[in-house]
Specification:
Organism: Halotia branconii CENA392
CATH class of the largest domain: Alpha Beta
Mean pLDDT: 94
Helix content: 40-55%
Distance between the termini: 37 Å
Strand order of the largest sheet: 3-2-1-4-5-6-7
Number of domains: 2
Shape: globular
Pfam family, one: Glycos_trans_3N
Keywords: Amino-acid biosynthesis, Aromatic amino acid biosynthesis, Glycosyltransferase, Transferase
GO molecular function, one term: anthranilate phosphoribosyltransferase activity
InterPro entries: Anthranilate_Pribosyl_Tfrase, Glycosyl_Trfase_fam3, Glycosyl_Trfase_fam3_N_dom, Glycosyl_Trfase_fam3_N_dom_sf, Nuc_phospho_transferase
Largest sheet: 7 strands, mixed
Order of helices and strands: HHHHHEHEHHEHHHEHEEEHHHHH
Low-confidence stretches: 352-356
Length: 356
């Protein structure tokens, strides 16, 4: 048993009257000790559930991110006119609404905006459809790439994917605890604002509960992050909803936020989300979007693409962003980016990089 971890556990697990929040340094230490297995299984399980009940603070999230920075992988800086976008999406996937994030990433990359995504396989507690499965169905398999090859793909295509089972295996043990506990620990919140990129970044994170937004702001502020976007998106993702007004927080200097409310109706979109069917059905829908064929999912792609093209600074406003998204999709530029990605990942030298 670790006596150091025992003291940290006592702070978060002592209840409303005597419990205390961890400092940033303590949160970093606790996270490192859990990832490295220096705390016992009983201590780790108790900490995760106690911390969930207590709820994390922004300072604690900053400390957890510090530990991820210390132990985890990072893609190295690439040449870009704008900060690289990091899309933070719940790792346990989607179960109700069709995800559009891979199309958004392809669209942004086709317009010259680099994007980094991160995540793993089907994971607890939702075991929903993860991004990695969608990419695989599109013929893009990130799962066997070492970080060196992922870096090369990122440099050549403007899209990178940090696949945690391969690039950050220390996190796998925490997922086992999460499955056994049946609840999302604060790690799941922190992952949404994790940045596995060493250069200038624009953190874009989805969230569900309003208090999460303020925690994000504090955590990123402590870490010196000045460019961020928080989206109350579909199932906690970065995908803008169509069935309601999108609630968005934009970073605004100095150390503030600008509230943005976007109504789909104001831009000619029907207020209806596309439901998630089978993975095969989603693949067919995405292929239709990439060909520019009219569909409900195409409307979702335009709604999201327009916003992110504007937010990244490529377009001056939402309407020009939507028009640009339509042009990129109907011209075949987004599908061409997918073909480029496939070709590079499946290139003849792939075996060489797998041995690195």
């Amino acid at each position: 048993m670790s006596n150091v971890f025992r003291e940290l556990l006592k702070k978060v697990g002592s209840g409303n009257h005597t419990g205390e929040n961890l400092t940033r340094a303590e949160a970093a230490t606790a996270t490192q000790m859990m990832l490295l297995g220096e705390a016992t299984p009983a201590q780790i399980g108790a900490f995760l559930i106690a911390h969930r009940i207590k709820r994390p603070t922004g300072e604690e999230l900053a400390g957890m991110l510090d530990a991820y920075d210390e132990l985890g992988p990072k893609l190295q800086p690439v040449s870009s006119a704008r900060p690289v976008i990091i899309l933070g999406i719940p790792y346990d996937g989607r179960t109700r609404t069709a995800p559009i994030a891979p199309v958004t990433a392809l669209l942004l990359a086709a317009a010259g905006q680099p994007v980094v995504m991160h995540g793993g396989d089907r994971l607890p507690t939702k075991y929903g459809l993860p991004l990695i499965d969608i990419w695989q169905k599109l013929g893009v398999d990130w799962t066997n790439l070492p970080l060196t090859k992922t870096q090369q793909v990122f440099e050549q295509t403007g899209i990178g994917f940090v696949y945690t089972p391969q690039h950050f295996p220390l996190t796998q043990a925490i997922w086992e605890y999460r499955d056994q506990l049946g609840k999302r620990p604060p790690f799941a919140t922190m992952e949404l604002i994790w940045c596995p990129y060493a250069g200038e970044a624009h953190i874009i994170s989805g969230f569900v509960h309003p208090p999460t937004e303020s925690m994000f702001q504090v955590a990123l502020g402590l870490r010196g992050v000045t460019k961020f976007t928080f989206v109350k998106g579909l199932e906690g993702s970065c995908d803008l909803p169509r069935d309601r007004t999108a609630i968005i927080a934009l970073s605004q200097a100095p150390q503030g936020i600008e509230r943005l409310l976007l109504s789909p109706h104001d831009y000619g979109f029907i207020t209806k989300n596309v439901p998630l069917g089978t993975t095969e059905e989603l693949l067919t829908q995405i292929q239709e979007v990439l060909s520019g064929k009219p569909s409900e999912l195409l409307q979702t792609a335009l709604w999201n693409g327009g916003f992110y093209l504007w937010r990244s600074g490529i377009c001056l406003d939402m309407r020009s962003g939507i028009a640009k998204a339509a042009e990129l999709l109907t011209s075949g530029a987004v599908d061409k980016k997918l073909q480029e990605l496939r070709q590079i990942i499946n290139s003849a030298d792939n075996t060489l990089f797998q041995q690195v």
